[in-house]
Design a protein that fits this description.
single chain, 8-stranded antiparallel barrel, 11% helix, mainly beta
């Protein structure tokens, strides 16, 4: 191979590499790896299995079905529209008054919800900056708390696996950074508690 042929081969190789890079930065700019974090408010739904009258002591603390929540997640988009995602969410504290024994005796039981999830994702761009996102997958939830004194069928603590779904929107501030607003419903976290969360956060694309 002559020097001229070698130079032409190197030039062709460079042009080919540059073309591939330009294509990856253009049509496929919305594919690839991303990570994110968000903070917001949780929302719990508790089972109505508590059929016994519960007397709340005078001046007793109020029961709570919402708390401060956050989530951390990462994912990969195979195309502009479809991908996969996994994450961890902490839903904050939940509490309710439950009978200890007989009638007229009650005690506040509380716990903290958390969940790991894996989901398939769908994305619908609305112009260059906005997009609507959806998630559908499986979640492993848990509510931890010390409530062995409560009747078994009314304890908030426990764990459960089930379907989860999420919907949201994002606004791209830069090529690699977007603001997000989401709602995620994780289904049952334990036998007596279901949970979801509203959050706002940031997502970084790579």
């Amino acid at each position: 191979m002559t020097k001229t042929q070698a130079r032409l081969a190197l030039a062709a190789l460079w042009l080919g590499t540059a073309s591939i890079g330009a294509y990856a930065a253009g049509p496929d700019k919305d594919t690839g790896l991303y990570v994110g974090g968000a903070i917001g408010r949780s929302s719990y739904s508790l089972s109505s299995s508590n059929r016994m009258p519960v007397t709340v002591p005078w001046g007793g603390q109020k029961a709570s079905k919402s708390g401060t929540a956050y989530k951390l997640y990462g994912g990969y988009r195979f195309t502009e529209h479809f991908g996969v995602e996994g994450g961890y969410a902490r839903l904050g504290r939940v509490s309710q008054w439950s009978p200890t024994y007989g009638y007229g005796n009650s005690r506040l039981q509380s716990g903290t919800g958390q969940v790991f999830y894996a989901a398939a994702t769908a994305r619908m761009p609305l112009g260059d900056a906005f997009a609507i996102n959806g998630r559908l997958g499986v979640a492993r939830g848990r509510v931890s708390g010390d409530n062995n004194w409560a009747p078994v069928n009314q304890r908030l603590s426990g764990s459960s696996t089930g379907l989860m779904f999420g919907v949201g929107a994002e606004y791209r501030m830069t090529q690699n950074l977007a603001i997000t607003a989401d709602y995620d419903h994780f289904g049952k976290l334990s036998k007596q508690a279901k949970g979801g969360m509203f959050t706002v956060g940031l997502k970084a694309n790579f």
